[in-house]
Specification:
Length: 501
């Protein structure tokens, strides 16, 4: 074989040869095809690529992702398995919290993690899909802290303090039309405004707001067994005080309940989880589990030694204190800063040291704190992204969305160094009519906390300053550690602080 001729022989085939000219033509064509394929991928928009990946999943998987995004607080649309801009933005928001890419495409491990997170949040409030035979609907109910009472038109689920009320109902349209009901719900009433209203041929949605309560009503027209039109719906009502305190969680519940609502479960072949009712007996109240604690979660505590925790509680505020599930004994307190050292047999993990930067630079930040995802739910350690900004003193301030229980929580730099304790979160005087805005929080320095715990008798301080020459380097958000990496050393060392006044 000469260098100018390519050839091969296969048994049963003829001798085939390719001249240099033909080889060049084929090579150029193959290069052109590869370039065209690459350009097609490059020219495809991120939305188109994400949509293609989403639509390759089964309908059940697509709905599972959307439902998970509802419970993560990222998605406020319908769980219908359809991909649109809202689903794209929700996936990107979920990805951004994990510190990963933001391409709108979830890997199988991401879908699994999202589903597990949704299951945990549902379990925390015992969110159950119930078939309500009186109203003829199927709907999700946070049964953990709600009681139920039947009435003629449906059922009423409510919290013991009436901060949450969910009422289902059915009305023959011969008695009240959908348009008439819409007129009643949107009628001008002094002290009440209607932020949102929509009326279509077969359904309506109306939100109403007063000083005392916020309500969300959804009604659908269905056809009964006799062919007559029936209106079936529900109203989810929340006290404004609870809504201000738990705006994010109430928003999640509102969307989750709306997505669970089915006005014709029998026609759709869905039975749900039936609640036993005595149809031939007088109406009776079915008690759900009451709220477990009359105490208030007021702060977050950090382990500094075995069974020893530091937090921020002003002296004399509480008659008794619990850290986690254990009664706490006060060892020392500082009136000026509010720092307090407690002994409590919580049994959480205690890391060897907490590394801190003496002068953290402005940039991305993480807040770790204890909170209740919903009123009456189990406490959890939450992580929120925020940013450090220049403060009036040597320490920066942190802008982040946190509840009042974040007091005493830890603020970490994008590289995972401890920046300080949250001095105090106060929501007093802040009127919140929607998602809670980011708060600007002041910090207590790790060196001050270290001096306090050693002055209180702790043999060795767990706080060690990171040795660095010159000013602290600025943190690039693109190279900052992931949220999981940053929080891994702190989650087991943080516990909620309960106060009984």
């Amino acid at each position: 074989m000469t260098p100018n001729r390519l050839s091969w022989r296969r048994q049963g085939f003829r001798y085939v040869s390719i001249t240099p000219l033909l080889a060049g033509v084929l090579f150029a064509a193959s290069v052109s095809m590869i370039a065209h394929a690459q350009n097609s991928r490059q020219n495809a928009s991120p939305f188109a690529l994400a949509q293609r990946a989403f639509e390759q999943l089964s309908e059940a998987q697509r709905k599972q992702i959307q439902d998970g995004l509802v419970w993560s607080g990222d998605y406020k649309g319908a769980v219908d398995g359809e991909f649109g801009p809202m689903t794209m933005r929700a996936i990107q928001a979920y990805e951004a919290r994990g510190g990963d890419r933001r391409d709108g495409i979830l890997a199988p491990r991401d879908i699994s993690a999202l589903s597990k997170e949704a299951s945990r949040r549902k379990a925390a409030v015992e969110f159950r899909i119930l078939s309500e035979p009186r109203a003829g609907v199927r709907i999700g109910v946070p049964a953990k802290f709600m009681q139920r009472r039947n009435n003629k038109e449906g059922a009423i689920f409510r919290a013991a303090d009436r901060s949450l009320i969910l009422r289902t109902f059915t009305v023959p349209e011969s008695r009240q039309t959908l348009r008439d009901l819409f007129g009643v719900l949107t009628k001008p009433v002094r002290g009440r405004r209607i932020p949102y209203k929509v009326l279509r041929d077969g359904f309506l949605v109306v939100t109403a707001q007063s000083r005392a309560r916020f309500s969300y009503t959804r009604v659908a027209r269905v056809t009964g067994a006799d062919g007559a039109s029936i209106l079936r719906g529900y109203t989810f009502s929340v006290s404004q005080s609870l809504r201000r305190e738990r705006a994010h969680q109430i928003g999640i519940l509102t969307i989750a309940i709306s997505n669970s609502f089915d006005p014709s479960p029998a026609a759709n072949g869905k039975s749900g989880t039936n609640v036993k009712t005595a149809t031939n007996k007088p109406e009776r109240e079915i008690q759900a589990k009451p709220v477990q604690n009359a105490e208030v979660m007021v702060a977050t505590a950090l382990a500094v030694a075995a069974d020893t925790y530091v937090t921020i509680i002003p002296a004399g505020q509480c008659n008794s204190v619990r850290i986690g599930k254990a009664p706490a004994r006060l060892l020392a307190s500082d009136k000026a800063s509010g720092l307090a050292l407690f002994s409590a047999p919580v049994g959480g993990g205690v890391p060897g040291t907490y590394r801190f930067t003496p002068a953290p630079a402005p940039g991305p930040a993480y807040a770790l704190f204890a909170e209740l995802p919903f009123s009456g739910a189990n406490p959890q350690i939450s992580l929120a992204r925020g940013s450090m900004e220049k403060g009036p003193g040597p320490l920066p301030r942190v802008r982040v969305i946190t509840p009042a229980s974040a007091t005493g929580g830890v603020i970490l730099t994008g590289n995972g160094d401890l920046a300080g304790f949250v001095a105090r979160v106060s929501l007093a005087g802040k009127k919140v009519a929607g998602p809670m805005p980011r708060l600007s929080l002041s910090l207590i320095s790790p060196s001050k906390i270290s001096a306090f715990v050693t002055g209180a008798g702790l043999k060795a301080s767990p706080f060690n300053a990171r040795q660095a020459k010159g000013p602290a380097p600025k943190v690039n958000p693109d190279t900052a550690k992931s949220a999981a990496a940053v929080s891994s050393g702190y989650v087991q060392a943080l516990s909620p602080v309960w106060c009984r006044k």
